[in-house]
Every structure is written in C-alpha cells, then in structure tokens.
C-alpha cells in the first residue's frame, strides 16, 4: 500500500454515513412542523380532519390567504416589526461600538469599574426590569409610541463586552502612530478601529434584529393602539378570535413566517457566524 493510500485511509471517517443520516433525520424533524403549518393553511376552512394524515391530502385553496390579507393588519404588523428592528439595531450598534471603543482605547478614571458595571448588567434578567422600565417610560409619556418601543431595547451590555474584547485585539502601536499623525479620536474610531470590527458588528447586528423581531413581552405591555402592534403581539391577538379553529390561525402564522424564512435563506451564513462568534447556545 502506498503512502498516499495510507493517508486517505486514515482520513476516512467510518461514522460519516451514520452521521449524515442522523443529520438528515434531525433536519426533517425540525422541518416537519413548518411543512405541516403550510399544508394546514391551504385547507378549506370548513373541512374537518379526523386523522393527522388528512391535513396533507387535497383539496387545497388559497382563499384563506386572501381572507387574512383583506381581514387583518398583518402587513402593518410586519412593517412595525421591521421599522422597530432596524432602528433598534442601528442605535444599538452605534452606542455599543462607542462605549466599547472608550472602554478599550481611551484612558479615564473608573474605566475598569465601569466595565464591571456592564458585566453586571448581564446578570439581571429582563423580566426583573419590566416594572421599573414601564414606570419610567410612562413618566416620560412614551407609552404607546415608537420611541417607547425602541429606546428600552438599545441597552446591550453583551454587545459592549464583545466589541471591547474585539477592540482590545487592535494593536496599540497602530493607535499611537495614527495619533502621532494627528488623527482625532473620531477619525481613529471611524476609519481605523471600526472597519476592523466588521465581523463583530455583523454578529451583534443580526442577533439584535432577531431579538427585536421576536420580542413579545415589552411590545405587549407598552402598546395600546392596534396600529403599533408588532408581529409577536398581533398574531396572538388575531388567533385568540379563532381559538377553536385551526385553519385561519395557521394561515396567519404561515404568512408571517414567509419573510423570516426568506431572510434566513439569504443571510444563513451570517446568522450562523454571528451565533458561533458570540458563543450563544440554544
């Protein structure tokens, strides 16, 4: 046997086929509820199903989708979720990057104590801050407004910690040479440090947008007008009117899932990299 054949034999994984089969089985297991949801959404409203397999059999109809589009504010909920998510993400990236740059590359008193303060922010569960946050937003007359939905969500201590650790890796010699050439702190931040942190910024931005899009508790508490409902709030409110029906609630959920699925297909690599970069596990 030649040396090349020996190396190829060593690199062979005898468990490759079982692992592939297991991965496909797990993927199908996670995809099954989504497929079932879309099949149910295509069934006629008055058609009963006595067995689970009947949900996948004809007849099919798109009338349910037309009824949802004409009889609900789903596009308004999507728009509200999108606008709130985009603005929240932009403001979070701006504030976290500025704070991380100051903590990493600027000298001032109590810098370490302030960093410990950010770390301590990770230890406080969000549910514990709901009541004082509600009272503060109410005193500022920001309830039932876009500002009231966005401003409480831009506090991201995890983003500050991630970016600070990333900025710490930028050589101080590079910073000092730029300062000797007359580079101001703003230009140093914008032209030198920030471009180097694009992977970290992309990870934080993606996770922030996903968190804002899926957020239910705060928008549910802070909104009164139906015109400000987001998808996580509007869908349960709509489904509660059809609590004994399967078809229309599944249709509105399927319709709301389409933009999310499309976005995931386009940004799959970035989302996976963002989760692996931050070390977050489900």
UniProtKB/TrEMBL annotation:
It is found in: Cell membrane. The keyword Transmembrane applies. Keywords: Cell membrane, Membrane, Sugar transport, Transmembrane, Transmembrane helix, Transport. Residues 78-267 form the ABC transmembrane type-1 domain. Belongs to the binding-protein-dependent transport system permease family. It comes from the Bacteria. InterPro entries: MetI-like, MetI-like_sf. This is Multiple sugar transport system permease protein. SUPFAM superfamilies: MetI-like. The keyword Oxidoreductase does not apply. The lineage of its organism: Bacteria, Bacillati, Bacillota, Bacilli, Bacillales. It holds the Pfam family BPD_transp_1. The chain crosses the membrane at residues 20-39, 74-101, 113-134, 146-167, 188-210, 246-267. Its main location: membrane. It is a multi-pass membrane protein.
């Amino acid at each position: 046997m030649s040396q090349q054949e020996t190396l190829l034999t060593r690199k062979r994984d005898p468990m490759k086929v079982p692992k592939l089969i297991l991965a496909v089985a797990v993927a199908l297991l996670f995809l099954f509820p989504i497929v079932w949801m879309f099949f149910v959404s295509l069934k006629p409203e008055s058609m009963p199903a006595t067995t689970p397999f009947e949900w996948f059999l004809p007849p099919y109809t798109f009338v349910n989708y037309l009824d949802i589009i004409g009889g609900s504010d789903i596009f308004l909920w999507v728009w509200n979720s999108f606008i709130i998510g985009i603005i929240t993400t932009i403001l979070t990236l701006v504030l976290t990057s500025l704070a991380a740059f100051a903590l990493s590359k600027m000298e001032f008193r109590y810098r370490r104590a302030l960093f410990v303060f950010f770390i301590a922010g990770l230890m406080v569960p969000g549910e514990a801050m709901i009541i004082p946050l509600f009272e503060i937003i109410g005193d500022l007359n920001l309830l039932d407004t876009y500002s009231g939905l966005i401003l409480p969500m831009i506090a991201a201590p995890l983003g500050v910690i991630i970016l600070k650790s990333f900025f710490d890796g930028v050589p101080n010699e590079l910073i000092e040479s730029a300062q000797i050439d007359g580079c101001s702190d703003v230009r140093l931040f914008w032209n030198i440090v920030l471009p180097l942190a694009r992977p970290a910024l992309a990870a934080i931005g993606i996770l922030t947008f996903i968190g804002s899009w899926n957020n239910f508790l705060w928008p549910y508490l802070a909104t009164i007008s139906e015109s400000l409902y987001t998808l996580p709030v509007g869908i349960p409110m709509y489904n509660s009117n059809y609590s004994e029906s399967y078809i229309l609630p599944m249709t509105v959920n399927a319709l709301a899932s389409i933009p999310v699925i499309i976005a995931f297909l386009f940004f799959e690599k970035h989302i996976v990299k963002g989760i692996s970069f931050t070390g977050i596990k489900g």
